[in-house]
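Entry 14. Structure prediction run on the chain below.
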Amino acid sequence: MEFERQWAMWLEQKEARREMGDRLAATRDVDHTWYFPFRGRAKAAEDELSWRGYRVRVSGAWFNVAVYATKPASLNDASVEEMLHEVLALAKEHGGRYDGFGAVGVI
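Output returned:
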C-alpha cells in the first residue's frame, strides 16, 4: 500500500521534472527522510543506511526522531522503483515511517 502511494507521487514528480527538462537518467544526490518513534530505532536505521552507502544525519533527542539520508542515484523508473522498495523496507524493519525523497533537477 505504501509503495503504491509513493509510486503515484513519483509519477507526478516525474512529469513535472520532464516538463522542466530534467535528464532523469543523470545521477544526482537523492535525499530521503524517515521518522522513528524512538532514538534506538533511528540509530539502528542510521547504522543500516550508513552500511548501504548513504550519508546520514539524525535529528531529535529521544522521541519522534528524524533520519535524513542522501545517496547518489538516477531517477529513471527502474532506479526509483528499486530505491522505494529499499527505503520502505528499512522503515518497516525499524518501526518507522518513510516520508519521501527529493533531488535537484539536472538540466
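The chain has one domain: 2-103.
Filed with the rest of this week's runs.
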